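FW: tagging you since you asked about this chain on Friday. Here's the raw sequence from the shared folder, copied in full. Didn't touch anything.
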Amino acid sequence: QVQLVESGGGSVQPGGSLRLSCAASGSIFSINVMGWYRQAPGKQRELVATITSGGVTNIADSVKGRFTISRDNAKNTVYLQMNSLKPEDTAVYYCNVPAVTTPRGFWRDVWGQGTQVTVSS
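HL: got it, structure written out here
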């Protein structure tokens, strides 16, 4: 009923930039926290950044100073601006909503399909 649609992934050279977008669709009353995770081959999925509806952000130390998370509450859309990309940023990036309120109740731990980000020369 609630879907997260991601876009903006691709391949870039080290030092390049990308902006990821994730839009939540369906009958939605409200979303508090939205965020991004990433998973590289052979590694566990890790939290990249989160943002609340009030604009409070949490950024992983590994990307702090390079990545910025933002959102448009009216559109239920979250963005991840990625600058100064490094090869170690290569991963599948997943949009995540821990909880969303809908007319049918609460949906927990909703995930996007993932979008590939590749950083290489």
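FW: The chain has a mean pLDDT of 95.
HL: agreed, and The chain is about 0% helix and 55% strand.
FW: great, closing this out.
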